[in-house]
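Suppose you are handed a protein chain with no further information: no name, no annotation, nothing but its sequence. What can you learn? This example shows the usual starting point.
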Amino acid sequence: MTVSDRWLLPDGVEDILPPLAGRIESLRRDVMDTCQRWGYQLVIPPLIEYLESLFTGTGHDLELQTFKLTDQLTGRMMGVRADMTPQAARIDAHTLRQDGVTRLCYAGHVLNTRPQHMLTGRTPIQAGCELFGSQSESADLEVISLMLETLRVAGLPRVHLDLAHVAIYQSLIAEAGFDAETEATIFDAMQRKSVPELNELLGDCPTDSAGGQLRGLVAVSGGVDALAQAREILKDASETVTRALDQLARVADMLSRDFPEVGLGFDFCELRGYNYHTGLVFAAYAPGHGDAVAKGGRYDAIGGDFGRARPATGFSLDVRALVALGERATHRVGAIWAPVSDDPALAGVVAGLRLTETVVQALPEEAEVDPAIRGCDRALVKRDGQWVVEPLS
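A reasonable first move is to predict its three-dimensional structure. Written in C-alpha cells, the prediction is:
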C-alpha cells in the first residue's frame, strides 16, 4: 500500500465539501422544519443496533444492504442502519408507547453495502416521516401530501407520483397457489416487467385466473386509463382486490384535487418493500432521475414484532439526491471580514454582529488575504474612531 492509498475512500463513500455541504444541511433543516410544522416530532435513532431490531418486520429486504459487526461488550451481532424506518417503528412500539396517533420524523446518514442504483453512493442522508396509530385513508393522504410538500421545499420543478397497492399482488399470488420457487421467479419478473418471462411462466393460465390476471397486469401502467385497464383485467378478482382498486381511485382523485401540478400514475408492478408493506404504496419521480426521489407506503405489521402491533404509514427520501435535482433559490448573504487588529473595541463589534451575521476574523497569517476568497462581501473598517461595515470594493 502506498502512502496515497491510505487516504483513498471506499467506492461509493465520499467527503461532502463546501459549498455543497452547506446546501445539503440547509435542505435537511428545511425538510425537518416542514415535517415539524405538520406535527411530526423529531427523533434521532442510534447509528448501530442489534440486527434483530434492524431486520424486524422487513424480511430479507435490508439484510443484504446492512454492514454487520460484533459488539465487543456482549458478543452479539450488530448492524449499521441501512434504513431508519424499522428504528422509528421500534421507538413508537417499544420506547415511546404512546396512545393514539404518533407522528415521528428523522434525518441522518444510513450506510448501504451496495449503492441503491448507479446515481447514488453508499452513504445516503435519509430523511422521512412515519405516522403510527391510524388505519384511515386520511393518514395515507397526509403522508403523501407531506412528502409532496417536502419535494416542493426541495425545489423540484416537476414531480410524477406513482400509486400502487401491494394487496393486489398479494391476493392474486395467494389465490394462484404457486410453489415457493415459482412464486419467487414470478415476483422477480413482475418487478422487472419482463413480459416474455411472465408469458413463459403464466402462459398456460386462463385469462380470468389469478395467474392470467398477473400476466395481464405487467403491461398496465400510466394515468387514469391504466386504472380502468386494471379494473377490466381484474373484474373477476376477489373483493380484496376490488377494495384496493377503489382505494387507489379515491386517493388519486383527492391528490389530483390538492396537487394539480403533480403528474399521477399507477404501476401495478411496484413491489418494493413487498415483504413488509401491507397496503397503499407510492413513489415520486423527477425528470432525468431513474430512481424514485421519495417513496413510502403502509406497513401495519412491523410493530407487532416489537410487542405492540400498530398501523403505520410513512415515507423517506435522500436529501443528498434532492440537492442535486432541486432548483432551490440560494440567496446567500456574504460574510463580513474583520481585519487583524489589537483594538479591543473590534472584539465587541464582532461579537455583536455574530448574533445575526457571519463574521470571519482574520488571523495574522491572513493579513494580506483577499476577503472575497473567504466568502466575504463586506468588511469592518475603522472610520472616525468607530468600526463600521462597508461593502468590499
